[in-house]
């Protein structure tokens, strides 16, 4: 607690002006107080983050001079006439004098990057930031006022938990605050919590962990039971870093760990994203102008946009017209490609490509499988960088872990905010960010669902990019309910109350792929596949011979044109001659155009109609004969 500072002989602890030396908890070196304050109470030697009081925190984070404390003061009482070694009232008085606060939370409103937000900042120096009646009431009022006024709530947590001195009344503040946060969430108003050192007990186990976006400050200890209690119970030393912010990130409990100096900037990005600055239509022209310097644009001139499915013709026609309106003659939509015909790449100026190019109808499906798996094929993270802007990754399933085989977060496409989720196989060959070849564990799939629910809350469309050999087959994955995780995604996605657009960009491997591919519109890149099982797996089971994979690939009808023909996908996105890896930038440019066109159409549609059509689409899949 207060072990962070050491008094030198003859110096008064509170008198910073006369020069107080602090001993850093991290490196044990002495720091001159003024240096420490100037460095936002972060040790200049070892980057250890020392605790910050509420008033100082407000100064550090919110726009200068914008904080207005709530005029009403809430003062604590002593409902149980609690006495331990000292009376509760005496402790309250002492805490008040030390912190300069009425209670363990400072409440008001302020601006963050110019945006008005409700603010509640806890102060650990006031009775360990414990939550009694006043903290519970203050947090609840902040949440309800944020909901009522429609402005985001930002809470900085720092607490040991419920306040013993108010007994069961304290414990019940957990329910009270959780209920208020529930109402806030129903209202669709954003709530961001920042977990600072330490956030434990009844505060962690109520409002702190219920936020839409949860940041942990570097160095924060976060958990339910405190480390000493755990050690006494299990009778062993806890491992280094247990309950650290990084531990929580790895265990899927927080979206990000942020350095103190980066907190303000990160919060501004989040709040800006989640508040009113939301264009409702895609301004692709601006995007096009911005990127016009890049050579990628030429790709749109060499390809035609192919579509099928008579029932979709009207919608796709609209998208095609939109393409033409935005891109002019450069964006060709050939009428003959609308009737279920395969896309035929036309030769480019060098004479490459043409009807023989990979992906045309005469390409052997096994070659497409190999193309989808090509080690140089551009992957999700490449497209994130090429096509989208302002990507803000959100991590963790809030339950068990953060699976980097699925990456997701807020992003913008030509200015339109959306939720972007995809399988992570790195961006380009040899990219160290690739995880398990993009094979998700249950926690990855549950993270994707968490993000889709967040998107639904904020009316953000969801864009997914599918590229996985399948869900990860492993002991832990089974133990943690891989099958249920996939099943829940399917059930929730089919009725998700926001537009969903899915693009298969590489391998669409069975359930692991489908858990990101239940959508209003499903696009497939020309050399991608979508299959119930890998051709090798199918050959091993049905032919009892893995080497028959080529035959199996043909039999399974897993290529984009084949799936277009049976109506399970809505459009094939053409690739450069020889495949996307031959010209990744051109592939990205074409993909961008298709995603933008379809997203524009989905955003213009009535959401109830979309959900009904989506349910109907998946309910009607099946081929059979009915005999009475
Ligand atoms: Zn240090």
CATH architecture of the largest domain: Alpha-Beta Complex
Mean pLDDT over all positions: 86
**Percent of residues in helices:** 25-40%
Amino- and carboxy-terminal Cα gap: 77 Å
CATH topology of the largest domain: 2-enoyl-CoA Hydratase, Chain A, domain 1
Could you describe the 3D structure shown?
The chain is α/β, with parallel strands linked by helices and 628 residues long. The chain has three domains: 49 residues, no CATH class; 224 residues, 2-enoyl-CoA Hydratase, Chain A, domain 1 (Alpha-Beta Complex), CATH 3.90.226; 302 residues, Alpha-Beta Complex (2-enoyl-CoA Hydratase, Chain A, domain 1). It is built from 23 helices and 19 strands. Helix 12 links the parallel strand 10 and strand 11. Helix 13 packs across helix 20. Bound molecules: zinc ion (ZN). Zinc ion (ZN) binds next to loops.
Which SSEs are present, and which pair or pack?
Layout: E1 21-23, E2 30-32, H1 33-38, H2 54-61, E3 68-69, H3 88-99, E4 105-112, E5 115-122, H4 133-149, E6 153-159, H5 167-186, E7 191-199, H6 201-204, E8 213-217, H7 227-234, H8 245-250, E9 256-258, H9 260-274, H10 284-291, H11 299-302, E10 304-307, H12 313-327, E11 332-333, H13 365-372, H14 380-387, E12 389-393, E13 406-413, E14 416-423, H15 442-457, E15 462-468, H16 475-479, H17 482-494, E16 500-509, H18 510-514, E17 521-525, E18 529-531, H19 535-543, H20 549-556, H21 560-565, E19 571-573, H22 584-604, H23 607-619
Parallel strand pairs: 5-6, 6-7, 7-8, 8-9, 10-11, 14-15, 15-16, 16-17, 16-18, 17-19
Antiparallel strand pairs: 1-2, 3-4, 4-5, 10-19, 12-13, 13-14
Helix pairs in contact: 4-5, 12-22, 13-20, 14-22, 15-17, 19-20
């Amino acid at each position: 607690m207060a072990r962070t500072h050491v008094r030198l002989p003859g110096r008064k602890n509170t008198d910073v002006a006369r020069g107080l030396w602090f001993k850093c908890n991290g490196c044990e070196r002495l720091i001159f107080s003024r240096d420490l304050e100037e460095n936002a109470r972060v040790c200049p030697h070892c980057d250890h983050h020392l605790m910050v009081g509420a008033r100082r925190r407000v100064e550090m984070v919110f726009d200068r001079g914008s904080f207005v404390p709530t005029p009403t003061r809430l003062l604590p009482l002593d409902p149980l006439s609690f006495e331990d070694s000292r009376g509760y009232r005496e402790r309250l008085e002492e805490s008040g004098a030390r912190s300069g606060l009425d209670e363990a939370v400072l409440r008001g409103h302020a601006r963050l990057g110019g945006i008005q937000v409700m603010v509640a900042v806890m102060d650990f120096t006031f009775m360990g930031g414990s939550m009694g009646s006043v903290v519970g009431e203050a947090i609840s009022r902040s949440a309800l006022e944020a909901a009522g006024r429609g402005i985001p709530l930002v809470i900085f947590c720092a607490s040991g938990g419920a306040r013993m001195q108010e007994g069961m009344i304290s414990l019940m503040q957990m329910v009270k605050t959780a209920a208020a946060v529930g109402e806030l969430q129903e209202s669709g108003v954003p709530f961001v919590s920042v977990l600072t050192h330490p956030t434990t007990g009844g505060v962690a186990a109520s409002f702190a962990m219920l936020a839409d976006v949860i940041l942990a400050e570097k160095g924060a200890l976060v958990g339910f039971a405190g480390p000493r209690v755990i050690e006494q119970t299990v009778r062993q030393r806890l491992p280094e870093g247990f309950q650290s912010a990084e531990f929580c990130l790895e265990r899927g409990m927080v979206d990000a760990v942020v350095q103190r100096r980066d907190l303000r900037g990160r919060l501004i990005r989040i709040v800006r994203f989640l508040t009113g600055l939301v264009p409702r239509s895609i301004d692709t022209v601006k995007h096009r102008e911005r990127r016009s310097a890049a050579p990628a644009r030429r790709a749109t001139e060499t390809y035609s946009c192919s579509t099928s499915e008579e029932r979709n013709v009207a919608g796709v026609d609209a998208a095609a017209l939109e393409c033409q309106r935005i891109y002019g003659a450069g964006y060709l939509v050939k009428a003959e490609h609308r009737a279920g015909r395969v896309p035929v790449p036309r030769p480019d100026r060098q004479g490459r490509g043409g009807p023989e190019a990979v992906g045309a109808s005469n390409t052997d499906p096994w070659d497409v499988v190999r193309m989808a798996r090509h080690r140089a094929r551009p992957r999700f993270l490449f497209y994130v960088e090429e096509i989208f802007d302002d990507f803000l990754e959100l991590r963790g399933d809030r339950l068990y872990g953060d699976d980097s085989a699925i990456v997701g977060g807020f992003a913008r496409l030509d200015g339109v905010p959306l939720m972007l989720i995809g399988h992570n196989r790195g961006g380009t060959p040899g990219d160290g960010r690739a995880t398990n070849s993009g094979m998700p564990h249950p926690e990855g799939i549950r993270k994707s669902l968490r993000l889709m629910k967040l998107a639904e809350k904020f009316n953000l469309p969801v864009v997914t990019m599918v590229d996985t050999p399948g869900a990860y087959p492993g002991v832990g994955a089974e133990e943690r309910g891989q099958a249920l995780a996939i099943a829940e995604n399917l059930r929730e996605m089919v009725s998700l109350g926001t537009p969903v657009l899915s693009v298969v960009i590489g391998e669409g491997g069975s359930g692991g792929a489908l858990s990101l591919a239940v959508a209003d519109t499903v696009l497939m890149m020309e050399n991608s596949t979508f299959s119930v099982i890998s051709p090798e797996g199918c050959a091993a089971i049905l032919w009892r011979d893995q080497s028959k994979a080529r035959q199996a690939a043909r039999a399974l009808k897993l290529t984009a044109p084949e799936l277009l023909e049976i109506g399970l996908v809505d459009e094939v996105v053409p690739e450069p001659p020889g495949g996307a890896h031959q010209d990744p930038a051109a592939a990205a440019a074409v993909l961008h155009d298709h995603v933008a066109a379809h997203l524009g159409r989905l955003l213009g549609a009535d959401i109830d109609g979309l959900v009904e059509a989506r349910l109907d689409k998946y309910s009607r899949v099946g081929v059979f004969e009915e005999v009475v």
